[in-house]
Amino acid sequence: MLAPLIPRAATGRPRVEDRQVVNGMVYKIRTGISWRDLPERCGPWQTVCTRFRRCALDGVFTRALWQIQARADAAGDIDWLLQIDSTIVRVHRHAAATGRKGGPKGRTNRTITPSVDPEAD
Q1: Is 44 exposed, middle or buried (0-12, 13-18, 19+ CB in 10 A)?
Q2: Which of 14, 51, 84, 121 has the most Cβ atoms closer than 10 angstroms to its Cβ?
Q3: Where are the domains of the chain?
Q4: 102-118 pLDDT, tens per residue?
């Protein structure tokens, strides 16, 4: 199903198998590991990273999503009812002050008001 969506190089040296590279991309996205930590079964990490970047820049993933959604919609497998969650997660007040652990340090932004109104003269 994804095979027609993956760009193929017409010339050059033999490529690492597309299935292997796509599995590497999915593994990286799912686990959140760095490219260099990809298992050997996914192929060379440089290859997986380069092809991922090219596919992202060329819009391959967006077109694949659109085609998969179109097929699923035609088959009646998608319910287009959407729900939006407006949950807000607040930061603890001590963390919100500076974004650093331990509270404010160093210079803080304070408004200095004059004791005498300069316009009063």
Answers
A1: middle
A2: 51
A3: 18-74
A4: 555 555 556 655 555 55
